[in-house]
Specification:
Layout: E1 7-18, E2 22-23, E3 29-30, E4 38-41, H1 43-58, H2 74-84, H3 95-98, H4 104-114, H5 116-121, E5 122-124, E6 133-135, E7 138-140, E8 143-148, E9 152-158, H6 164-169, E10 176-194, H7 196-202, H8 206-218, E11 230-241, H9 250-254, E12 257-261, E13 274-278, E14 287-291
Antiparallel strand pairs: 1-10, 1-11, 2-3, 4-8, 5-6, 7-10, 8-10, 9-10, 11-14, 12-13
């Protein structure tokens, strides 16, 4: 059963002494807004964590397989769709046949049924064997830190080298120097949207929605690494609309969640340095606030 309500949500998470989302074009430094100094985490990075959590919890089994995952060959997944709908004949022959012909819609539906991230976030599946394109009902923005953050660079030492040649150059000292980039502390906010109209097109249902909320609340607990330090979800505020079109503009609802530094704090180093104000007064008719984390 697909969802029949519109949802808008606010996700709060923080990082301490870690790199929440390194920028490969900047030597893996934490992503920053160059003008304001606010930290950034891309929507793609957040979706990756949701995918990893769902794959872990559901064991990569249909209907909760993950389409975009580490070392995946996407065109091979497209071929599975044509096998699944009994149209293997379209996997051979000229270019016109490989485009899928009149079976593209069936192949796209098969992908939505079997892959959680396809029916949730959408996907472009027209490369190679054509399974069409899907516009997902769930969309996320970049996460932005509430206050400016600083990116620190640390020198680190490994008491080993990789090759004998390196050891010979150091006369057996065997040290390898490296760099590590961290944010001392940052509280980040991302906004999200769930469309029931697009959910009907992909088959995104109530069970999928419950799994999404669970993933957003727990995804950092199973994504630990030395590079990311301590990351935690600190709040998941979901605005549920009674209607499919919605009962209030999303931006007006998002403005009701206001994290602010406590008086006297100039440099935050923990979540306790913030106070999160939630304005529930005069909530628009037809909108209810669910605090899921």
């Amino acid at each position: 059963m697909t969802i029949s309500n519109r949802y808008d949500f606010v996700l709060l998470f923080d990082v301490r002494d870690g790199n929440p989302n390194g920028d490969p074009d900047a030597g893996n430094l934490p992503r920053l807004d160059a003008e304001s100094g606010h930290g950034l985490v891309t929507d793609v990075a957040l979706k990756r964590k949701v995918r990893n959590f769902v794959g872990l919890v559901k064991g990569e089994q249909p209907p909760y397989e993950i389409y975009v995952k580490e070392k995946a060959i996407l065109n091979n997944q497209h071929k599975r769709a044509y096998v699944g709908i009994g149209r293997e004949d379209l996997l051979a022959g000229d270019d016109k046949k490989r485009k899928g012909g009149d079976a593209v819609d069936d192949a796209r539906a098969w992908m939505c049924r079997n892959f959680f991230d396809v029916r949730t976030f959408g996907a472009v599946m027209s490369t190679g064997v054509n399974c069409g394109q899907v516009r997902g009902p769930v969309q996320l923005t970049f996460a932005r830190s509430i206050d400016p953050v600083i990116a620190q660079e640390h020198s680190i030492t490994r008491m080993a080298v990789s090759t004998e040649a390196e050891a010979d150059k150091q006369d057996g000292d065997n040290r390898t120097m490296g760099r590590k980039h961290t944010v001392p502390y940052g509280l980040y906010m991302a906004h999200g949207f769930v469309s029931s109209f697009l959910a009907k097109q992909t088959g995104f249902g109530e069970d999928d929605l419950a799994l999404l909320w669970q993933a957003l609340g727990q995804m950092f607990e199973h994504d630990r690494s030395a590079a990311r330090g301590e990351m935690s979800t600190r709040g998941l505020y979901v605005f549920k609309h009674d209607s499919e079109l919605g009962n209030a503009p999303a931006h007006a609802l998002f403005e009701r969640i206001r994290p602010m530094l406590k008086d006297g704090i100039t440099a935050a180093r923990s979540f306790d340095d913030y106070e999160v104000s939630v304005d529930e007064a005069d909530m628009p008719s037809g909108v209810s606030l669910l605090r899921l984390c």
